[in-house]
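Handout, section B. The chain below has 217 residues.
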Amino acid sequence: MHIDHNSYGSVALAWLIGAILIIIIYLLHLSPLATGIITAIVLLLAIWQTLFFRVPVRQSPGSSSVVSAVADGRIVINEKVYEPLFLKRECIQVSIYMDFCDVHANFWPVDGVVTHYKYYPGKHLLAFKPKASEDNEHSCTAIRTDEGKEILFKQLAGFFARRIVCYSEPGLRTKAGEQCGIIKFGSRIDIFLPTDADVKVKIGDKVRACESVIAVL
């Protein structure tokens, strides 16, 4: 495990604020019990903030035909929809909602080549709401596999998310299970699959980035 390199500043800021708060607490000359409890809470929050930006080392079963989970979280959508932004056809949408305890690093779902990337500014609705897919700030990445299958995934900002990091660029070769970015704080991933894909998850399932199989193309 390591810390996402785009998040060093956020982690440093969390520890700086924590150190300042602890100094202030000691200067207030509170009771030893109160000082100890507040100090422990501040340290736990700083540790949690550090772990929030962790990038775990995991083995992915993903390939050019097996779609692995882009992120940790819970399946909140699994249905046929029309994808209007790039694919412009009926697809199967599988959405993963990430809460504050989930790893927020994101990983390539399949082996292939990036054929499209675009960032869209937008709102910050609660990420589990269906309208978030259309209205929230998000980025879109399309990947074509060696077999000619094309999938699209969106990184959606949630109510608290204020930064989406994505390494996508057209022509980039992707490897399932390697990091492709991170979303900072509660958010969602939408994956758009061909209608003939064999989806392996259902609503309510918990999935782990890299390790869980979402579908077979």
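Note. The chain has a mean pLDDT of 86. Compare this with the example in section A.
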